[in-house]
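Weekly puzzle thread! Below is a chain. First person to post its structure in token form gets bragging rights.
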Amino acid sequence: MLNLSKARERPEQGATMTTPMTPGIVAGRLSGDEIAANFGDLHPQYDPHEAQVAADRCYFCHDAPCMTACPTSIDIPLFIRQIQTGTPEAAAKTILSQNILGGMCARVCPTETLCEEACVRETAEGKPVTIGRLQRYATDTLMAKQGHPFVRAAATGKSVAVVGAGPAGLACAHRLATKGHAVTIYDSKPKPGGLNEYGIASYKSTDDFAAKEVEWLMQIGGIDLRTGVSLGRDVSLTELQNDFDAVFLAVGLGGVNALRTSGEDKATDAVEFIADLRQCSDLTTLPVGRNVVVIGGGMTAVDAAVQAKLLGADSVTIAYRRGRDDMPASRFEQDLAASKGVRLLFNVMPKSVEDHGITLEYTAVVDGKLQGMGETVTLAADQVFKAIGQTLTTQAGLQTEDGKIAVTGAGRTSVSGVWAGGDCTTLGKDLTVWAVAEGRDAAEDIHSVLMGA
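Winning reply:
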């Protein structure tokens, strides 16, 4: 439960935040106990009885709409039936055979707009089967046991370089390893996991789960992980093409879109804030403003805003340039933010960022185009975060489209022998589950090409 007791201010204690410090941005607004309570698991794991009760609600539909709505095409009725019959480990293997990061996806997927929205129970009663929580129950049960459920095939003698250890890269690497290929993953960060490690709200992925999932995934064998290696800086695409039989790029989006308004240097990247929070071992040392404004309307904006509130900010506002129905974050995420005390302000765009405030201009859609209406409002803000999308920083000379790597089919790029997937490409949507599907499908295509199928 969110604690709104009076903040206790004390100097910053070793946090890594890069936000310019002002008198209003301080660490220790809440005690350690309050922070621990605020950042507890958003949806705790079911116990066996709870899982049985939840599974009993499934109609086990033939040609189930929930399966069609899942980007990784998990056989949802089958795995729920397996939970119902008391075999959660079998259920987990059903899940993981399609989505090797099924544990994380169970935590972070917007199931309310994917499988659960398509659920027949949702259509009939407005209360879907809790597919996400059942998926977590199954995968957590299996991962708690010793051993890995998949077996690596005999070595093929082929090698593949995977650039990026996020969801797409990890899914691709694991699928290639199961088929007997030797895989080397390169990642520019000190830890693998990509956005699962650095970009997911802490209350969605507690207890260092992202790192544990990667460690579990690597048990398949045949994968060499090299961190701190950046494409373009430490290794070139040409070098990888010369050294490996195939290359898969899952480099994500490293750049940040600009506000293009005066005082932009006073705003901080929301992704950077979330990454600092995720890597901070003591959240009482992480500074946060008293009055916080987040510019944007996606999941990153919600994650940054909610976590600022959970750290003890008195006032947090999400300012989005369009109306509620156009907000990229799901209604569930919007309601979650509101339930934590975050104010959602629609139809406003930043006009200027000042030392202790931000001026927003009201907007409207005129003749199909968004434009400012001249009327403004100024909010007190000692900390402003921008969460207005990210940009591709490493294209490696490949053909691009709309600012992303252009791909066809299962991730084939404009260069023979080079595939790509995840947020850096024009495929799918910027969600973990889509990235996993793209990495998995690219791996299947790479395998077919390497084996001459």
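Puzzle host: Confirmed. Bonus trivia for everyone else. The domain at 32-38+260-389 is CATH 3.50.50.60 (FAD/NAD(P)-binding domain).
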